[in-house]
Specification:
The protein has about 120 residues and is an alpha+beta fold. The protein has helices spanning about 5-10, 60-75; strands at about 20-25, 25-30, 40-45, 85, 105. About 25% of the residues are buried. The structure holds guanosine-5'-monophosphate.
Length: about 120
């Protein structure tokens, strides 16, 4: 086990638990440990990619799969009718705190805009 693994890599490797709602060959979705909305789930690739800015042309299929999975998981969670927000924080100004690409799915209440 290497010490420089991100917390999400540890979740992928099942070294620490998470409340997983979807898993397939390419990605994982699990509830956020500190929910910012009644439903707050993270969709992450199993591949170690830092953020959206680090995606390359070689990741086109993966990026598409992640977006389709976001929609599928939101549907599974019953968010489709009321709507929801998808957020990918990128870098320090974006407020990214975990350096492993992730899409937040936030729903279950009306969300304000713009963010702070
Ligand atoms: P970011 O700020 O990078 O966009 O989002 C990181 C998210 O990961 C935060 O919403 C934070 O609550 C969540 N998070 C951090 N550590 C853990 C953890 O160990 N387990 C889970 N399920 N979520 C985590």
């Amino acid at each position: 086990m290497s010490d420089d693994k991100t917390i999400f890599k540890r979740i992928i490797d099942k070294e620490i638990p998470a409340d997983i709602v979807h898993e397939d060959d390419l990605c994982l979705a699990f509830h956020d440990v500190a929910p910012a909305a009644p439903i707050h789930v993270l969709v992450i690739p199993k591949k170690e990619v830092t953020n959206v800015a680090a995606l390359t042309d070689q990741d086109a299929a993966l990026a598409g799969h992640l977006m389709l999975t976001v929609g599928q998981v939101a549907r599974q969670l019953g968010l489709e009718e009321g709507g929801y927000r998808v957020v990918a924080n990128c870098g320090s100004d974006g407020g990214q705190t975990v350096d492993h690409l992730h899409f937040h799915i936030l729903g279950g209440r009306a969300l304000a805009w713009p963010p702070g």
